[in-house]
Amino acid sequence: MAIRSPEPRIDEITRAGAAPPVPARFPAVRVMATPPMPPTPTARPVPKLAMEAVSVFYGSTAAVRDVDLSIAPNAVTAFIGPSGCGKSTVLRCFNRMNDLIPGARVQGRVLFNGEDVGARDVHPVDVRQRIGLVFQKPNPFPMSMYENVAYGPRRHGVRDRARLDEIVERSLRRAALWDEVKDDYRKKSGLALSGGQQQRLCIARTLATDPEVILMDEPCSALDPIATLKIEALISELRSTVTIVIVTHNMQQASRVSDRTAFFTLGDDRSGRLVEIGDTLQIFTNPREQLTEDYVSGRFG
Ligand code: ADP
Fold first, then answer.
1. 88 within ligand 1 shell (Cβ under 6 A)
2. Could you give the dihedral angle defined by the CA atoms of residues 112, 115, 118 and 124, in that order, rounded to the nearest 10 degrees?
3. pTM
């Protein structure tokens, strides 16, 4: 609720046509006949994702408390912080994946394009179509690459073969996998690929439903350095069309791939807290908080 003084504001009085009261201890002043121009409304862009006072509990234990943040569209935001401080838990709130964990409870508001994803009339499957999630360990389905990528569109009712062919090829291209698999993607199992290729297949599968956001939960932690660099290059490619939020334990990776960085840590009560979020360069070179400075300079964590 806005805090109001008991006195009417001067603009309310002039709008109502009465002269403003003149405080007795000041000389009388002339009141301008025309009221001052109203301030130009500054349209603030709606963030792609936001959280307002979000806390998440597993049973009665708070994993993370009081998170307020907003995520800029078409940018990469990295979540960094020590293990167990709630980065993945916060990430999963955006597309309601915590709904699938027995005993998990989310308090507060999670907004997607300004709309509450937790509202009664919002279906989690629709949210997950528009906000995809890529897991730490690549998890292709035990079926052909084609079927892996066509899976989501089929579930959403695409039946036309030519249309599915087009979606599969486009998604494999966007995931920078097409050139490596174009000869056998219809037959070869997704499980027959290398780890890095499997992760790019999972990204292609996510892209097939044309999401606005892709959440990535330590997507490179199971990959070798070459495969990691390919995923990082892919993230840079995708950022112009998709909003990406990536959890990473690797600070060099955060500084390489992200535009914005959010630093989380454990509070004294052992639940996670967001310490600060800002431009990646600022977080790594000139953080506002001492806790962030200590973490990014390697003094703890
Ligand atoms: P991070 O991603 O920063 O490592 P997590 O979000 O995975 O942190 O975990 C935050 C806290 O929540 C930890 O204490 C973890 O043990 C707990 N936690 C995470 N997932 C579950 C779960 N499915 N059930 C119970 N506790 C969980």
1. yes
2. -60
3. 0.85
